[in-house]
Design goal:
Elements: H1 3-10, E1 23-27, H2 36-48, E2 55-60, H3 72-79, E3 84-88, E4 94-99
Parallel strand pairs: 1-2
Antiparallel strand pairs: 2-4, 3-4
């Protein structure tokens, strides 16, 4: 069984509700530290669960590096949206804002 398969069975969904407001998705938990694929998957789910006119802040684990390296292409390809880098957190994570049209 691959690490991804294990995560699929044990990882809680990033959200199961539709957010009709701006919000933050915490992709900094330990399960994301070495799994960029899981971070991308859950970031896309977070965007799917954000209504038009709002934004979601995607807070990614610092061990994954700058989100431009692993996340931005997937967001642009899937939604045609332009992610905006906000800042690096004091703990090492990164905040990317995605405005949902």
């Amino acid at each position: 069984m691959s690490d991804t398969d294990t995560h699929d069975q044990t990882a809680e969904p990033i959200t199961d509700e539709i957010h009709d407001n701006s919000w933050s998705a915490n992709l900094e938990k330990p399960q994301y530290a070495d799994d960029a694929e899981l971070a991308v998957r859950d970031a896309l789910v977070a965007i799917d669960h954000t209504t038009a006119g709002n934004h979601v802040n995607l807070v990614t684990h610092g061990d994954l590096g700058h989100p431009e390296e692993f996340l931005y292409d997937a967001i642009e390809r899937e939604y045609g949206l332009d992610p905006e880098y906000v800042e690096q957190c004091g703990c090492g994570g990164h905040v990317t804002r995605v405005q949902v049209a």
